[in-house]
Structure to design on (836 residues):
């Protein structure tokens, strides 16, 4: 019946239906416990009683509007409900649910329920006292029976409860035991692991295990005796680990000392490979970074350490053991010992061998050891805690850097091979880049490279000085003769020759300069390129590189090449022909200086018009060399004249002249003619100056022959012979031996000697003495002192030759005249000296 009511509640999902359901339940219970059974239709109707309150108003409204047909249908449904078994009431209620007059039906149902309620109420009032008596009797019988049953069944339950209590106690004890074992077993397992690690000599994991056991596990089981035994054993184990760690640390220090060179070699090779990869990409920044501000790539620098080396295999455990020593005293001991030993090793590494500068391998070994040392230190710094710190690293690096710079400065100064110095520079750059990659400050190394650059320049200058000397020694000092266009092209490829007239000539052609001109030009370019090689990777700007190259080139030109040219010009075996060729060569080299400027501009990409750009001093160098060569030509020419004049063998006591010029003088004139013919390629002023200088020197030397103190006596015949030689010189001067130099101009070189000889041969003393000091004087260029010296020599000869004829009147008059003229000449000479 209850199931039927729940089914009705499911069919009518509303608050009112719920109320109906509640009323039905109360009614049903009342029927079961209060009233005797009735027919099933009446029971069902009674069960519907409880829904009356909620549907009164609704039924009244429906009654007013329903039709007779609906009312009849509802009556039929109600009769079916009252007369149908409760198991079959579902379809009937379903028909109500499917219809649309739910409220009207509920009103009908409420009215019917009220009617039945009145009947139930009447029936209950009639049977109330009997019902109460029956319930009371029923309760008495049920309580006694129930009590006995409970007593009988409780005995067994008490027994079971006691058994259950014992089981619960056992279970609690088992749980407690499990908890204690769960707490102790990890401690025992950890201690067992510690013993296994100690036996296996895995001290770093053992130290970790010991630390965990002491600080995490043992405090939880401190109440047990075995924990105190373990606590007593831990200090011994820790001391054992400390002793073994110290021993291993010593072995580790020895190992890294042996393998530092290999580690450094690997690191430098990797840095060099990285430079090769980066060289294809433009550099955006070259400034090195400090040790404290490591680059992002520095985090991976540890991976660059050779992990296959024995030192790397050890530091994975030994360094970490040192890192986990908790006692302050032990930590200080490890740190101090390690740092002290590493400082000693650093001093050994930084001490270079005395012959390190002889080969590049010596420098490589030195750098590899240093890089290996500091790569290991950097690795330790970033993989351990407390063993080293930034302050220690900075102090150690500062000490090492100063020592490295001092060693390199000293040994690089010993190097005389420019290729070795260049290789050293490249090695220092790789060395600096490697350490910079690990965060070390390397600015001073690049400053040192600038110093080595100056040394490199000096070494290059010495090398090129030898090259220039060799070129000068190998040159033939003759114009280059080319027989084909290919030969001509080879020369013009080496030297920028621009000569339209020469290019139009047919082969064979004669290029005015000798072979050392293109060779010198090529060597200057090679020197410039060698300087540029050293400037690579020095973190210099284009302007700084250009300035360095120009200064080095100026040193080459003004100091080395100029000195080589000066030495060449002053060599004794260099003759006039060679000097002439040197002047021609320097002229062409001077003209090529603008091409050297263009070459430097091309390789540095810095315009010569840029502010503060150093200019090349090649022009002044070659001008000075040419001027020196010109002076040397004058000197050589005069020396050659002196050599010819040394052959002069005058008979100063000659009575009559020979009738022709002296042989030595004829040879000298022929030499001068051939020499000045070679001067056609010289600049006009040079040839003219050389010719004038030669004639002046010749005239001066001839006069010195007359005035030679060793010549004590002189005859008129000797003067007449001397006059014939002078006529030969004047004839040479009037023949215009050098183009552009007039004969009259060249004859002025001999005017002093000509007037002196004319004065003695004509014996025109009266005119000389009368016109002396006047601008129109015929013998204006005759010096009284010179005339007096020559007259004294003739007077001595006249005195000795006329010793027996002094009584002759003519001879006496002549002797008296000579005395008078000599006296007057002395007076003029003294007055001239007093005037000056």
């Amino acid at each position: 019946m209850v199931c039927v009511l729940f089914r009705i509640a499911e069919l009518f999902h509303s608050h009112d239906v719920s109320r109906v359901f509640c009323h039905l339940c109360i009614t049903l219970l009342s029927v079961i416990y209060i009233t005797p059974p009735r027919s099933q239709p009446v029971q069902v109707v009674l069960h519907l009683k409880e829904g009356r309150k909620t549907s009164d108003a609704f039924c009244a409204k429906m009654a007013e509007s329903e039709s007779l047909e609906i009312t009849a249908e509802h009556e039929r449904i109600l009769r079916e409900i009252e007369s149908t078994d409760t198991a079959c009431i579902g379809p009937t209620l379903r028909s109500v649910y499917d219809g649309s007059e739910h409220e009207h039906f509920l009103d009908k149902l409420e009215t019917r329920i009220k009617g039945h309620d009145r009947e139930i109420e009447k029936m209950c009032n009639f049977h109330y006292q009997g019902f109460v008596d029956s319930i009371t009797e029923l309760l008495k019988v049920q309580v006694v029976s129930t009590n006995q049953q409970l007593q009988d069944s409780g005995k067994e339950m008490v027994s079971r409860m006691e058994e259950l209590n014992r089981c619960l106690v056992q279970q609690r004890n088992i749980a407690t035991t499990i908890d204690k074992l769960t707490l102790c077993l990890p401690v025992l397992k950890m201690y067992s692991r510690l013993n296994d690690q100690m036996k296996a000599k895995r001290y770093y994991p053992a130290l970790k295990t010991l630390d965990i056991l002491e600080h995490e596990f043992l405090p939880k089981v401190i109440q047990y005796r075995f924990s105190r035994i373990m606590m007593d054993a831990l200090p011994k184990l820790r001391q054992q680990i400390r002793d073994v760690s110290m021993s291993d640390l010593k072995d580790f220090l020895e190992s890294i000392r042996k393998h530092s060179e290999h580690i450094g070699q690997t690191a430098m090779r990797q840095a060099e490979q990285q430079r090769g990869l980066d060289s294809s990409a433009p550099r955006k920044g070259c400034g090195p970074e400090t040790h404290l501000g490591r680059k992002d790539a520095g985090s991976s620098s540890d991976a660059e350490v050779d992990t296959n080396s024995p030192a790397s295999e050890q530091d994975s455990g030994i360094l970490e053991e040192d890192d986990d020593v908790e006692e302050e005293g032990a930590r200080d001991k490890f740190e101090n010992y390690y740092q002290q030993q590493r400082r000693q090793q650093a001093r050994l590494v930084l001490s270079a061998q005395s012959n390190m500068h002889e080969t590049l391998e010596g420098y490589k070994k030195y750098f590899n050891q240093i890089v290996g040392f500091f790569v290991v230190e950097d690795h330790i710094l970033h993989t351990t805690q407390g063993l080293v710190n930034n302050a220690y690293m900075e102090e150690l690096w500062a000490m090492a850097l100063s020592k490295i710079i001092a060693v390199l400065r000293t040994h690089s100064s010993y190097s005389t091979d420019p290729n070795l110095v260049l290789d050293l520079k490249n090695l220092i750059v790789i060395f600096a880049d490697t350490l910079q990659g690990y965060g070390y400050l390397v600015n001073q190394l690049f400053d040192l490279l600038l110093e080595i650059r100056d040394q490199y320049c000096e070494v290059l200058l010495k090398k090129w000085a030898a090259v220039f000397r060799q070129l000068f020694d190998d040159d033939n000092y003759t114009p280059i003769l080319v027989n084909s266009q290919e030969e001509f092209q080879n020369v013009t490829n080496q030297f920028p020759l621009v000569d339209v007239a020469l290019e139009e000539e047919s082969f064979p052609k004669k290029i005015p300069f000798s072979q050392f001109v293109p060779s010198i030009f090529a060597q200057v370019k090679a020197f410039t390129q060698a300087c540029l090689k050293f400037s690579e990777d020095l973190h210099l700007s284009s302007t700084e590189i250009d300035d360095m190259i120009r200064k080095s080139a100026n040193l080459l030109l003004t100091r080395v090449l100029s000195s080589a040219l000066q030495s060449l010009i002053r060599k004794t075996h260099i003759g006039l022909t060679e000097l002439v060729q040197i002047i021609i060569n320097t002229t062409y080299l001077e003209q090529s200086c603008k091409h050297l400027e263009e070459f430097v501009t091309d390789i540095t990409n810095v315009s010569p018009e840029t502010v503060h750009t150093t200019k090349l001093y090649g022009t002044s160098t070659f001008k000075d060399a040419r001027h020196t060569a010109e002076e040397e030509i004058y000197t050589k020419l005069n020396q050659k004249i002196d050599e010819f004049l040394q052959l002069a063998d005058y008979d100063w006591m000659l009575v009559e002249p020979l009738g022709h010029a002296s042989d030595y003088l004829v040879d000298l004139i022929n030499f001068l003619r051939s020499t000045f013919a070679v001067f056609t390629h010289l600049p006009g002023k040079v040839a003219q100056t050389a010719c004038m200088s030669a004639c002046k020197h010749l005239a001066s030397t001839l006069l010195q022959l007359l005035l030679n103190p060793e010549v004590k006596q002189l005859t008129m015949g000797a003067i007449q012979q001397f006059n014939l030689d002078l006529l030969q010189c004047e004839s040479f001067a009037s023949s215009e031996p050098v183009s552009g130099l007039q004969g009259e101009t060249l004859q002025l070189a001999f005017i002093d000697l000509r007037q002196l000889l004319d004065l003695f041969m004509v014996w025109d003393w009266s005119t000389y003495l009368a016109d002396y000091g006047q601008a129109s004087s015929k013998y204006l260029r005759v010096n009284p002192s010179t005339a007096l010296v020559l007259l004294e020599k003739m007077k001595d000869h006249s005195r000795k030759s006329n010793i027996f004829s002094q009584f002759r009147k003519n001879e006496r008059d002549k002797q008296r005249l000579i005395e008078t003229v000599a006296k007057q000449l002395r007076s003029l000479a003294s007055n001239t000296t007093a005037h000056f």
